[in-house]
Amino acid sequence: MTALAVASAAVVAAPAAAQSSVRPFDVPAQSAAQGIVSFAQQAGIQVLAPSEATAGRHVASLKGNYTVEDGLRRLIAPARLRLVSFDGRTAVIADPKAGGGNAAPRAAFTNINYEPQSAPVASAPAAAPQAAAAPADQQAASEQMQEIVVTGNTSGKRTLFNSSSNVTLASTADIQRKAPRSTADILELVPGIFVEGTAGPVSNNYSVRGLRGGAQTFITLEEDGMPILYGGGGADEYFQQDITIDRVEAVEGGTSGILAPNGAGATINFISQRPNFDKTEAQVRFTGTTYGDYRADGYFSTPITDSLAFNVGGYADSTKGVRHSPFSYNTYHIKSMLEKRFDDGGYVRLTIKRGDEHDPYYADQPFAVSANGKISGIPGLGTQYGNIVGNAFNDIKVPDSCATGNCIRNFSLSQGIHTTSTQYRIDVDKPVTKDLSVFLRARYLDAKFDFNGIFPGSGAGTAGLASAATYLDPTASPIASFLAQGQAAFPTATQFGLRDVMGGGTVIPASDTATLNALNGNGLLQQTVLNHQLVTTKDFGTDFGTRWNYSSGVIDNSLTVGGMFYNVRHYNDQSGVSTLINDVKDNSHIYDIVALDGTGNVVGQLTNNGMISYGNWGQGVVKDEINSISAYFNDELKIGSKLHIDFGARYEHEHVGVDIGNTAAVNQPVPAGTPGIIADVGSTFDGTYTHVAKSYHDWAATVGANYELTDNIALYARYARGFQTFGGDTGGTHKPSDLTLYEGGVRYRGHGLAASVIGFRTIFNDQSYQFINPDNPAVQANALANNKTVGVQVDATWKPVRFFSLDVSGVYQDPKLHNLRFDGVAQPQYNGNTPERTPKKLLTVTPTFILPGGLGEIYGRYKYIGKIFADSGNGVALPSYGVFTVGASFNVNQKITISASVDNLTNVKGFTEGNPRQGQTQTIVNGFFYGRSIVGRNALVSATVKL
Description:
This protein is mostly beta strands. It has eleven helices and 53 strands. The strands form ten sheets. It has a 22-stranded antiparallel barrel. Strands 9-14-15-12-13 form a five-stranded mixed sheet.
C-alpha cells in the first residue's frame, strides 16, 4: 500500500496552536486525492492517507473558517473517510471499513472491523511521535461523535456532536451484529422506536415516542433519501435490507418532518453502497437459520471508465418462517446502479430495482391465562413456535361479487403475502458554482401487494372460541343462528356433526362428546377470518432544489430550498373475505358442519369448506389518488466555532380523490353448485363507485440550536411541528394529523465515553386510524385520538479498554390518551389511558468483547420491553419481558467472516399485542384471550466472502 503525503514548505505553528486556531479554507468539491492535497496546502499540514482509501472517492466543497481538524473532518465526510489521528502537524486518514481491532465505535453503536492493514504512518519521517497522542480508546470515544450525518441535514457539515436533532447511525457491522430477522428489526437500533416484529418478515408495526402502537404513522422509511412509499405505512412490504445497504441513519423529530413527507416522528434512511470507481469488488453472503430460512446475498461493482461505474446486488431467499409451517416462501430482490461522475463533484445516477417476494404472516392466536394472570399456550398450540397456518388453508375458493372480475376468489396461504415491485430512479447533483448547487431525486414505483393471511378470532373474538361440543349445541353455540338455518334447511336432522375437510369424510356427531372434548387435546374450535387483500400501487415522487453555501467572517451558512411532488394511485380489493370454523392447534384443520338424521347419516352440509359467511369483513373495493406538492427550506447556520442554529419549514398541499365501491341493494347469489346453506356472497360490490374528493394543506416547521459548551460537552434544543397525511378509504378522505415535538439534551464525548441524555415531549392531535367494528365486522369504524407523551432517552457507548465496549440505550415515557372519538362520537371513558401497544419502558444493553489479533468479536444483548396494554380501554395488560441474545463474528482470514447469533437464548415468552380486530376494549374471557407473541429460541449463521 502506498501513502499520500503532502506538507507545506514551512510549518511553523506549534501543534496545539495548529489544532485550535481558526483559519479560512476554500476547497472546491473534487476527487479525494486532489482535494486532500489542496486542503493540506491551505492548512499548512501533512496529510497521510492510503491510496486505496482515496481512489475513486470525492470530497465535499469546504468554504469558511474552521479549525484544521474540524475542516478536515467536514471535507472527507462525504467520501466516507475517517480521521485516525491529528497531532497538530500530521493528519492520518483511513477507510473506516479497513480499521484495526481498536477502531472507534460509531455513535450510537460500536463499529469495529478486522481487515488488517499496515499503518500508513509507520515509515513517514514527518509523523509525530505516538506518545504525544491521547490514549487510543479516548480518541475513539471522541471521534465517534464526529461522524457527518446525511439524513435530516442538508449542509453535509453537521456531526453527531453538534447536530441539533436526535440522530442515530448504524453501520454494516452494527446491522450484522443485530442479525435482524426482518427489516423492522433493524429499527430497534434506533432508541425510542418500539418495534412489534412478530408478524413475520414483513407487515410489522413500529411506533415512536409514545405514539399508539399497531401502526406505522409519523415514521418514514427511506432508501437513499427518498421515501419508499409516500404514505410511509407498509414500506417494509416493498423494501428489504440486504447486502447492497451500506449503513442506516435515523433522525427522530427535528428536520424529519421538513425533509420527508409523513416523517414528523422519525425518518429511517437505508443508504446504499455506491458504485466503485477505482476497482472491481464483489462479495457474497450465505445465511441459514434453525427455522429453515436459507438465503444468498451477492454484490458486484466495477468501473467502466474513470468517470462511469455500476453495481448490482441483491438476494434470493427461501424460508418457512420462524413459526411452524408446511409451506416454503421464495423471494428475490435485485438492484443495479449506473453512476456518472463529473470533475466538479457532480453526478448522475440511475437505479433500477426489481423484487418478487413471498412471505408468511402471523396474526393473533389464542392463549390461556391462569387465575394468577400467567399467560401460556393451549395444548396443541405452542406459545413461541405454534402456528394456526396449515395445509387446510392451501387453496380455498371463496364466492365473491362478479363485479370484481372474479366470481370465485382463490385464497391460498401457500402464497402468503406476495409482493412484486419494480422501481426506476434518477439522482442528479450538480454544482453550478463553488457555493451553489442543484439536485434532483425522482423515483417511480409500480407494485402489487397480494395479501393472503388468516386472522383467528377477528370479529367474533373470544366469543367465537368455544368447545367443539358447544359449537354443535343449538342452544349454546356461538353460531346458534347459523345452526337454526341449517335445521330449517334440513328438517329431518336430529343433530349436527363435524367433518374434517381433510379427514376422509369421518364425521363426529354432537352426541359423541368424548371425542369432541378430546379434539386436538383441547377440545376447542374457533372462528378464523380469511383475509385476502389485493393492493396495486403506482407511486411517483420527486424531490428537487438548490443548495447555497455562504461564509463570511465568523458566519458559515448553508441554505437549501426545494420542492416535492408525489402522485400516488391505489386500487384496493378486500372483497370476498370470509369466516370459517377451524380447530385450535398447529397446522390447524378446517371443519364442515353437517346435519345428521336419527341414524347418524349425513342429510346435508351447512358450510362450504368450513365457511359460515362470505363478504362479512374488511373494506371491500376502493380506489384512491393522491396529488401532493410541497415547498420547503432548511437553513443551517454556524456562528463562530461553537454555535449551530438551523430552522426550516415545509408547506404541503394535498388533493385526495377516492372512489368507494358501492354495495348492491340485494346481495349476489352464490354460484350454482356451491356447497352449504349460505345463499349469497354477503356484502356485494355492484361495479359502481361513489366519488369523494377533498383538498388539505398543512405546515411543518422546526428550529433547533446546538452549542458546544466545551470540547467534550454540547447542549441542544429543538422545537418541531409536523403532520401525517392520509389517502382515501371507505371512510372517505381524512384531514392530516398533527404532531408537536419539544426536545432538548446534552451530549458528552471523552475518556472512553460517548453519551447523550434527551428529554422530550410530544403532542399528537387528531391521530386517525380505522378498526374493525366488532358488532359488524363488515364495517370499518374510524377513530380520532389525541395523545400526549413526556419522556427521557439515554444513549451511551463506553469503551474503557481496547478489547471491550458497552452500549446502552433506553427510554422512559409516559403517554396518555385524550379526546378519543369513534366515528365522531366522543369516548370520554378512555381519557388518561395508555395508548394501546405502547410500552413506557424500553432498554437495550449490548456488551462486546473484541478478540485479539483482529480475530473478531463476541457480544451479548439484553432487550427489555415494559408492560403494554393490548387495547385503548386498558382491559388486557401484557407483561414486561426481557430477551437475551448472544453472538459472535470470526474472521477466518481477510476475505472470509463467519457470524452467528442466538436470539431469545432463555426462550422467554413475550407478547406484543392482543386482538386489535376485537375492538378498542378487550377482555379475558373464560381464561382465554387472543394475542401475538415473540418467537422462541432461534439461531442464525452466515458466511461472508469477499471475492
